[in-house]
Amino acid sequence: KMEEFLNLTQLKTSLKEAILLDYYTAGFWWAREMNFSLIQLSGFMDLLNFALENLSSKHMTLGDNLKELERAMSGIGETESEERGDLNLFSIEKAKAIIDYLVTSLFKHYKAYEHLFHSRREEPVISNE
Which InterPro entries does this chain map to (predicted)? Predict the structure, then answer.
């Protein structure tokens, strides 16, 4: 179902699509294991997409992407402010867990993801094997 949702059409022959499917699927299952509500799960998936889009589309450096993530998550835990929108539904503990997850799943491997999105050549696939 994730393949359909992400509109991945060349999953069997595209390393990039396979990696993206793995990234989002792993994030989804991690959030489920953290017992996120449906709204929290949606907000978490938005954060995953936000960080990945900053890298892939906006060509942000690791430092810039971390700053953007900090800005996006700065309202977490505040109860009176609605300025940050849906991110207020995460507790401080869950926000820390989210940051830890993003560090281990994306930011520690930032160079590899940069190569995935910004390298010019694609290796031809000989067969589905």
Answer: CLAMP
